[in-house]
Amino acid sequence: MQENKLGTMPVSKLIWNMSLPIIASMLVQALYNIVDSVFVSMVSEPSLTAVSLAFPAQQLMIGLATGTAVGVNALMGRALGARQQERADAVAINGVFLAFVGFVISAALGLSLSDVFFRAQTQVGEIIALGDSYLRIVTGGSIAVFGQVMFERLLQGTGRSRYSMYTQGLGAIVNMILDPVFIFVFRLGVAGAAIATLIGQCCGCALAIYFNLTKNHDIHLRFRGFRPNWHIVGGIYAIGLPSVIMMAVGSLMTFLMNKILITWHSAHETAATAFGVYFKLNSFVFMPVFGLNNGVVPIIAYNYGAQNRSRLTEAIRRSVVYASAIMLVGMAVFLLVPHLLLQIFSATDTLLAVGTPCLRIIALSFSFAGACIALGSAFQALGKAVYSMINSIVRQLVFLIPAAYVLARYGASVGNSNLVWWSYPIAEVASLVMTLVFFRRVYRTLIVHLPEHGKQ
Prior knowledge:
Elements: H1 11-43, H2 45-81, H3 85-119, H4 125-140, H5 143-157, H6 161-185, H7 189-214, H8 230-264, H9 269-305, H10 309-336, H11 338-343, H12 349-363, H13 366-381, H14 385-414, H15 423-445
């Protein structure tokens, strides 16, 4: 095997070489997520509310896809760093198999429990019907998103981030073109938005498969005579399962937050809509950070496999600085022009009144989130993803939701429903403290024992 650039290129240059294509593709993803909701908001506010309430289920599905891919990426990166070609190939092949299994699970749950899921959040019949039709299409065709995520991560994990930019870009462009066609021309409303999304994901998945078969020479995808290697599957989920659980916890948090808002906030469903709009808008801030860290994970994993402490620690340090800088820029935008951001979604006066303090208060948590995300990615790459999982669970279910419940009830009693949004900064401060404690432990028990410049 030839030496990979993950072990030779200067770290700062390598981070941006790996991350910029992913960041660009994720910004396109964020754009088409917002465009999707913008077109839906033109139909009606109940349509936008239905899509917002569907978000926890979509988040759970995507969490399973990305969590599995995180495990594949880290395990494959270590194998490539240790120059174990056969093992790297086996990890990639088993990853594709697990992506298909994830689709089967998501489709079965989505098609059978969609109506129950919406009725657990609201009793408004129109929202339930709209959300049910949207979610059934998204989950029933989820083989596209599972395939796209896995094949893109195989490209990223071998240093070919540029190609994943093309695949995500194609999917996003197709989606944005088809959205107005299916929503307005064919008059399918939210169902049309789901169909456009599905077609875009199919296009992105097909291109990702093509690139892996023709451009990715570091791994070899041969499925003849394939049988699952349960030892490798266990290794993938030893790293990736905490990421899946983190996304599941995030999905549960969003579900519970919607329930709290609809029950206790004075604006009820409009508050849940504002919360959903926040998630659409924050993707423009968080997606670049996630893209940065998706580029850094293979670097850390590779140099951990190569036992190079100097490159590993430099990658972690720079990722924390870069992620924090991105989050501070995002915080400034949310604080200065929240009303302009909300007007993108054809916001009514009520939505503006609820959404403006929502965006401004939650944005304060961004200043702490960058370091937490960057160090969480380092935990995953080093095989200590359980720390990220613990942090996520405690942050969202021990701090965020209880704080939101208490503040929402107290706010309702004193006539200040905006108090509920302060639960986010409170939870993020607690998360940063936990993250730093965990990283100190990882550094002392794992990183400090590596050779400074790798095996001689």
